[in-house]
Design goal:
This protein has 273 residues and is of the alpha/beta class. The chain contains 11 helices and 6 strands. It has helices spanning 7-19, 33-45, 67-79, 84-93, 127-132, 139-150, 175-192, 202-209, 215-218, 242-247, 252-266, and strands at 111-112, 118-122, 157-161, 196-200, 223-226, 233-239. Strands 1-3-2-4-6-5 form a 6-stranded mixed sheet, sandwiched between helices. Strand 5 (223-226) and strand 6 (233-239) form a beta hairpin. The radius of gyration is 26 Å and the shape is elongated.
């Protein structure tokens, strides 16, 4: 009767012998198992080489951008925009964000009131937003609209995102992608002149406030957002993203409390110091 050889068991036994100091095995040629094992450990400790970009039919290969140059170009393009219409056109024409060349159909800038007292900044557009060209228009956007209406904020908000093109697969935008789009976000804040910011989701809160805490730690708390040149300063509250609320309905109570706290401060006769 023949028995099947379990290769993993044999390998485990050989490794045990090597660790025990056995230096000789029955084979045609001697094998230094200790040296062999050390070589394997060295190989595992070294990071694998980066995978080469894969070209797909009809899609250009995207190479790593020069982030500093892209940010400088975004600053220059945003600085000359004196209204939201010209800012939207500058964003649509901007070529420095790599997301634009990774399957996005169009730039998604904003919706809402151009002189709103509250600006809501999300993370990035999804499939519905990419198709319609406006932020927060899918299921998460409809939930956000219902919450805003219930809180008395309907018609009093300007909504945008930290990036203006849909990340592939609806993934979270990277800090580098957000950094490239940040000058446009900052210019939008300067043009709208809101009294405060609502930061929807962890990626938005971390990028805008330059903090590392998770959204469950930051939500419901007041922070100060400061522009890069420190000429603008606004109170900002992080809250849970509506898409997260759709996945975890039990968290809606927290987001609703955040919205009520913000609305109460927004409706005070004078901005507190």
């Amino acid at each position: 009767m023949s028995l099947a050889v379990d290769q993993r068991a044999v390998e485990s036994l050989l490794a045990f012998w090597a660790d025990a100091g056995v230096e000789a095995l029955y084979a045609e040629a001697p094998i230094d198992r200790l040296a062999e094992g050390a070589a394997m450990l060295r190989a595992k400790s070294q990071p694998p080489p980066p995978a080469p970009p894969v070209a797909r039919p009809g899609m250009a290969v995207v190479r790593s951008p020069d982030i500093a140059s892209a940010v400088a170009a975004a600053k220059a393009a945003a600085a000359v925009c004196n209204d939201l219409e010209s800012l939207a056109a500058a964003i649509a024409a901007f070529e420095g964000c790599p997301l634009k060349h990774q399957g996005a159909k169009q730039a998604v800038f904003s919706r809402g009131v151009g002189d709103a007292p509250l600006m809501i900044i999300g993370e990035g557009p999804g499939a519905d937003e990419d198709a319609q060209g406006q932020p927060f228009v899918g299921r998460a956007g409809k939930l956000l609209d219902r919450m805003l209406k219930a809180a008395g904020l309907e018609g009093r908000v300007f909504i945008t995102n930290t990036v203006f093109w849909r990340p592939p697969g609806n993934r979270t935008p990277t800090p580098q992608e957000q950094a490239v789009c940040a000058p446009f976000v900052e210019r939008a804040i300067a043009l709208v002149k809101p009294r405060m910011l609502l930061l929807a989701g962890g990626a938005s809160a971390k990028a805008m406030l330059k903090r590392d805490e998770g959204i469950l730690t930051m939500r419901g708390r007041w922070f100060e957002w400061v522009s890069e040149d420190q000429s603008l300063e606004l109170p900002a509250m992080p809250t849970l993203h509506p898409a997260f609320l759709l996945r975890t309905p039990a968290q809606k109570k927290k987001a609703w409390q955040d919205l009520l706290t913000l609305t109460e401060r927004l409706d005070r006769p004078h901005r507190p110091h």
